[in-house]
Amino acid sequence: MGDLIYLYGLIPTNEATNQSLPTFKGFDGSGGIYTIPIEKSTAIVCKLDSEKYSEERIKDKVSNDMEWLQEKAFHHHETVKKLARKFTIIPLKFCTLYKNQDSLRKAVHAKEPKIESAFSLLAGNEEWNVKMYCDDHVVKEQIKKNNPAIEAKRAEISQLPKGRQFFEKKKLDKLIESELEEEINRISENVHLHLKEFVIQGNVKRNWSKNVTGKKENMTWNGVYLISETAVESFLEQVQQYEIQMQEMGWKFEVSGPWPAYHFSSYS
What we know:
The protein is of the alpha+beta class. 49% of the residues lie in helices and 23% in strands.
C-alpha cells in the first residue's frame, strides 16, 4: 500500500534553504524526519508504514492505549518545539497524516494564501502562556471588609429583628459569593487587557480544574499571547510586577514559553 506521510509542520522554504534540518527520529522511532519543498512552503515530515499506522489503528491506540498516546504526543510536541527554535513554523495537530506526497502537495497548494499570511504573522514572534490563580478565601476576606455592597447589606441586617436576621444573613452569604465571582473576573480581565498592550494578539483559553492543575488555588485565567521577540522581556517584567503586587492579595501567576504558535497559526 505504500507509506503514509506524517506532517509535523510547515516552514518557509527560504528558511529551509538557509538552515539545515536538525536530525530527529520520526514518529515510529526508527526513520528520520525530512523536508518536502512545496514552492514557498516546506513540509517537515516523516514516513509511516500504512498498515501499522492506518486510521483505524491510530484511533484504537488513541482510545485504548494511554501509554502509547502519551509517548507519541510527547514526541510530536517536542519535535515541533525544537523546530520552532530554528524556524518560523506552522505547527500541525497531532497525527496529521496524508496518503502520499501528492495529497500533501494538493492540500498545501489549496491553503497557500492562508499559509503565507500565517508565516507573515508568526515571523519574529513568540507564543507565551500566562495562567492566573487565586486563593478564594483570601479574596473573599478582602471583599467582606472592603466591598460597599456587602457593608451596606450588613448594616441593613443589623437593624432587623433577630428572627429576620438569620434569613437575611443567608442572602448575604450568596451576595458575597456573587461579589467574589465578579471581583475575580474583573481583576483577571483587567490584567489580560493590560498585558495585551505588550503583544500582537492575545486570546483566552478554557480554565483548568484543580484536578488537572494539582493546585489548591482556582485557575481564574488562561491566556495565550503572540509577542514580538523584542517585546518579550517587557511583557515578562510586567507579569513579574503583577506577581509581586498581588501575591499578598491571594493571586499567583504561572508563565511558560516560548511555545510553537499553535493558537495563532491555523492550518485546518
